[in-house]
Design goal:
By secondary structure, the chain is an alpha/beta fold. It contains 15 helices and 14 strands. Strand 2 and strand 3 form a beta hairpin. The longest helix is centred in the middle third of the chain and has 21 residues. It is globular and about 70 Å long.
Length: about 475
């Protein structure tokens, strides 16, 4: 059965503005594919394969795993369901894409977590952002973290039987007296399900959202001890609780307490050391925020075991710093050439980022400048302060349009403004509901050339290089 997991995801994302699918609706059919040969078309719905009703893409992959598939296909124009048979050669894809990976709706959260970010959103946030998903299938398919508190016994057996791994599980705490007030009355169900999965050998990547004075200190030690005794736990991420200005419960976190952050780093170090000695992996990993908040150096790349929790903010800074050094070492002449062209045409590059990433973006710009004969920078970071959410929110992925447009200069002539792709969802919409097209139009009206790029050194440079090559003379 084909599988996907968090390592295959391009990035984490927030909710689409489009409604969830209701059934296995066909979005696209590849010309000349088995699906095309059988007469399938976009807008039709596949209800069953071999008589088995489809709940999600997992059922589709599992039931249609052979070289022949008997389908029940609903055609809306006729309001009828027809039988169709698909045939394919070994290794050939069926050639059909669906509008969603979940066909029977998303499993929503049954918890009342004290630190829930959605409980800290403004009252006028759009409805799609208020959807609290907690679906074990999205854990397997997209790397979402789930608590397992709403998983039935039948679904547990499905996870084990189909080997839906790795599972990405939010653990938070192990002691019942801490978990229940932290998560809610269903807290124990999550541990019961997790125990069954671990006993069955299902690989698990865990997460702890650390709340100062609640699940840190001795409770954190107990939780780490429990994880240390479970061999199926491949990694455990510790991330600090974040809060917004709309929070009614929290008004501070580790971001305001350097010593508390350093205490977390010190507490986890013996667990990391033992894991490396016995397993050859670090296993217990801190999010980048802890090192920033503690004012400590970011650990080397080998600490992150191949970055299994990259999109949980684990190792992003180290990866960026290493890629920046590698880019400058291997492509220094190209960087220098592009810098000279930018300087000749009197253009500069403005790299938009969140305040948390300002330091590493500045390091990239400094590395680039060192490749130039005059050593002068042609790019600079522009950190956006998050007024929309407030609190300690400072990451690039949560930049919103109203803050961006309010804080960027009114005169951007001669600037190439690079916006981070991660601030837009799959529909190219920001968290405050503005569109990418409108933002680009607004900034171009101020005189800027606007690029959208992933925030890695190679992709940033490739986007800038392509712009310089396409427009060597910006006046044209």
């Amino acid at each position: 059965m084909p599988t996907t997991g968090p390592k295959e995801s391009k990035r984490a994302d927030y909710a689409s503005t489009r409604p969830q699918a209701d059934g296995a609706w066909i979005a696209a059919v590849e010309p000349g594919s088995p699906a095309d040969d059988a007469g399938l078309e976009p807008g039709m719905r596949i209800d069953a394969v071999g008589g088995v009703a489809l709940r999600d893409i997992i059922d589709w992959r599992w039931e249609a795993d052979g070289d022949e598939a008997e389908l029940d296909v609903y055609v809306p124009e006729d309001d009828e369901t027809y039988a169709a048979t698909l045939y394919r050669e070994p290794g050939q894809d069926w050639g059909v894409d669906f509008t969603d990976v979940l066909f029977d709706g998303i499993r929503t959260c049954v918890n009342a977590c004290q630190f829930c970010f959605m409980a800290m959103l403004p009252d006028d946030a759009r409805a799609s952002l208020m959807l609290r998903d907690d679906d074990y299938r999205l854990s397997f398919l997209q790397g979402n973290f789930v608590t397992l508190t709403n998983v039935s016994d039948e679904e547990v057996e499905r996870i084990i039987r189909c080997r839906l791994e790795p599972m990405n599980v939010s653990l938070h705490a192990i002691s019942p007296e801490v978990r229940r007030p932290l998560i809610g009355r269903n807290a124990q169900r999550g541990i019961d399900v997790l125990e069954r999965l671990l006993e069955a050998g299902i690989e698990v990547h865990g997460q702890i959202v650390l709340c100062a004075g609640i699940n840190d200190g001795e409770e954190l030690r107990r939780t780490l001890d429990w994880v240390e005794s479970k061999p199926s736990f491949t990694s455990l991420a510790l991330v600090p609780m974040g809060y917004t200005k709309y929070s009614r419960r929290f008004s501070s976190s580790f971001s305001e307490d350097r010593e508390a952050s350093r205490a977390v780093v010190r507490l986890i170090e013996p667990y990391q050391r033992r894991a490396r000695e016995t397993l050859g992996i670090t296993r217990f990993q801190l999010s980048d925020e802890f090192y920033l908040d503690a004012d400590l150096p970011v650990p080397p790349a080998e600490t992150y075991d191949g970055y299994p929790q990259f999109y949980d903010g684990i190792g992003m800074l180290r990866s960026f710093l290493d890629e920046s050094e590698e880019l400058c070492a291997n492509r220094g002449d190209e960087l220098a050439k592009v810098a000279c062209e930018l300087r000749r045409s009197r253009r500069r590059v403005l790299l938009v980022c969140g305040e948390a990433a300002q330091g590493v973006i500045a390091a990239f710009c400094a590395n680039w400048a060192r490749t130039c004969p005059d050593g002068l920078p042609v790019a600079r970071p522009y950190a956006i302060h998050n007024d929309y959410y407030g609190g300690d929110v400072n990451v690039t992925g949560l930049i919103v349009s109203c803050d961006l447009l309010a804080q960027l200069p009114s005169d951007l002539h001669g600037e190439i403004v690079v916006l981070p792709e991660v601030m837009f969802n799959f529909d190219h919409v920001t968290l405050d509901g503005d569109t990418q097209a409108h933002i680009v139009e607004e900034l171009e009206g101020r005189g800027a050339r606007v690029l959208i790029a992933q925030t890695t050194p190679p992709t940033l440079f490739e986007a800038i290089c392509a712009e310089v090559q396409a427009r060597p003379d910006p006046a044209q």
